[in-house]
Write a structure and sequence with these properties.
Structural class: mainly alpha
Helix content: 55-70%
Radius of gyration: 28 Å
Strand order of the largest sheet: 1-2-3
Largest sheet: 3 strands, antiparallel
Order of helices and strands: EEEHHHHHHHHHHHH
Distance between the termini: 89 Å
Number of domains: 4
Strand content: 5-15%
Number of strands: 3
């Protein structure tokens, strides 16, 4: 079989073999492999070129995604699937990214947990659950959240709400802060202790707690 025509458009080339359009490649790959009119090719070579091109496109797509922020292996695999890349290209891409250290679920889990605690503190249990939803293995999720103190995290979360709660009677103060802390995944005991601590800090009195 002979390459009879190569049409270039926007960094891609359409390769015609024996007068028929055979495949599309990146212009760079075509140049590297010497794909030009008059070149003799076999069916096996065309299949290899197609596979190599898909791998390159998958890698380029993955690198673009990672440029916006880290991704778990599960997230990256899902995004590449949605872009219609085949399993072989996806596996090869993720394998290479792991080798390069660009994809690391353990590091991703730690980073996610740290970001959550610095921006929107919540319980270790809730963060671990979020990580599992992102495809992180349960053990890695537990390891990433093992250093989180729910008592400290609950207090940090509550402090950001105190301005809006000042002036409330104890019952309303407790209900609103309790709902907020529960929504962040903290259990009853942690929430209760945090409420009492914050109530004292806003100037609440023991008498006020007894009127409930």
């Amino acid at each position: 079989m002979i390459v009879t025509q190569v049409e270039r458009k926007r960094g891609r080339v359409s390769v015609f073999v024996d007068g028929e359009r055979a495949l599309e490649l990146s212009a760079r790959l075509a140049a590297e492999q010497g794909i030009r009119p008059g070149r003799t090719v076999t069916s096996e070579e065309l299949a290899e070129l197609s596979t190599a091109d898909e791998r390159r496109r998958a890698m380029d797509s993955a690198v673009r995604l990672l440029s916006y922020g880290p991704r778990s292996v599960h997230e990256l695999r899902d995004r590449l699937k949605r872009k219609s890349f085949g399993p072989e290209a996806i596996d090869a891409t993720i394998g290479r990214l792991k080798e390069l250290g660009y994809v690391d679920d353990a590091a991703y889990a730690r980073s996610w947990a740290e970001l959550r605690q610095s921006s929107r503190p919540r319980s270790a249990r809730l963060i671990a659950s979020e990580l599992r939803l992102k495809g992180i293995a349960p053990q890695l999720a537990l390891e990433a959240t093992s250093a989180i103190s729910d008592d400290d995290a609950a207090y940090e979360a509550a402090v950001g709400r105190l301005r809006a709660l000042r002036g409330l009677q104890y019952k309303k103060f407790r209900e609103r802060l309790g709902r907020f802390l529960t929504s962040r995944g903290f259990d009853y005991g942690v929430a209760r202790a945090t409420i009492e601590r914050c109530w004292e800090e806003v100037g609440g009195t023991a008498d006020a707690t007894e009127t409930d």
